Amino acid sequence: MTDTENSSTSPKPEERSLGLACHLLALVGLILPFGNILGPLVMWLVKKDESAFVDDQGKEALNFNITIAIAGFVAFLLTFVVIGAILLPIIGIFWLVMTIIAAVKANGGEAYRYPLTIRLIT
């Protein structure tokens, strides 16, 4: 593939930055309840019509954070039988690491796919 073919398919720098923001806005969840869902949701709703890359990465970030919220809720319920106390920190670390990896990949122009994600929004 030539450089001109590659550059026509890769996202522009502004699109990369917005893709990065779609993933990093999930970190609002560290401050606000459900901020991990609201941050990507707002970015996706505002910018989805302007860029296919931002639309794709916004949906991906939103699906992942909804999946993490469901997993966190289930783990919270399981704290009453002790296993949830082990699962909650594992889910939290997994969420943080995957969010950072996704942000770096999106900033590099790669359409990142989170592992273990329920694809509710397509």
Enumerate the spans where pLDDT stays under 50 for 5 or more consecutive residues. 1-7
In whole angstroms, the N-to-C terminal distance is 29 Å
| Coarse structural class | mainly alpha
Helix content: 55-70%
Strand content: under 5%
| Computed Rg | 16 Å
Please count the beta strands (DSSP E, at least 2 residues each).
0
Total domains, how many?
Answer: 1
The helix count comes to: 5
Would you tell me the overall average pLDDT? 91
Order of helices and strands: HHHHH
The major pleated sheet works out as: none
Assign an overall shape: elongated
What does this structure look like?
30% of the residues are buried. The chain has one domain (3-107). The protein is built from 5 helices and no strands. With 122 residues, the protein is an all-alpha fold. It is elongated, with a radius of gyration of 16 Å. It has helices at residues 3-9, 13-24, 35-47, 52-77, 83-107.
